[in-house]
Amino acid sequence: MNNRLLLVAVVTPILGLLALIGRAELNLQNGREWHLPITGYDPRDLLSGHYLRYQYALDWQPPDRCGSASDGAIDGGCCVCLSPTDEGRVPRFHNVRCDEVAGCLSWARGGDLIGEQRFFVPAERAKELEDALRSRSARIRASITSDGVVAVDTLLLDGEPWQEALAAE
Description:
Elements: H1 2-30, E1 32-40, E2 47-48, E3 51-56, E4 78-85, E5 88-97, E6 106-109, H2 110-113, E7 117-120, H3 126-135, E8 138-144, E9 150-157, E10 160-161, H4 162-167
C-alpha cells in the first residue's frame, strides 16, 4: 500500500508539470505572433540572477480609453488591444475596456503587459547578453491567444533570436 502511495506522490507532480508545459506549447502554437518592444526595467541591474528584467514599451496610439499606465488606471477592467503597423509583427497598442475587445486583432489583460516582466537567460551568457541589450533594439516574441493569454517565446535582438544575434558577433 505504501508503495502505491509513493508512486502516486511522485507521478502526480510530474503529470502536472507536463500538463503546464503542454498548455504553454499550445498557447505558443495557437496564438497570433507579435514582436513586443521592451525596455530595461532597471538599467543598473538589467540582469538579476538568471533573469532579464524588462517592461514592455507600450506606445499608446491613439490615446487610450481606460486611462494610461502612468496614472495607474490599468487594472483588471482594462485590456490592451493590439493592431498591426507597417512594421509587420510590431503592434500598435491602445486600451479598451475588457468587454469591448471584440474588435481587436489580439488583446491581453492590462496587468499582463504592464509592470516588470522577467525572461530567463543562461548565467554563462549573462554578461554578453547584457552588453548586447544596451546597444541593440530588443523585443520579445510572444503569442497571444484568442482569449488574451500572453505566451512569451524568445528575446529578439535587432529582429533575430538572441542566440543567433550573439553568435553572429
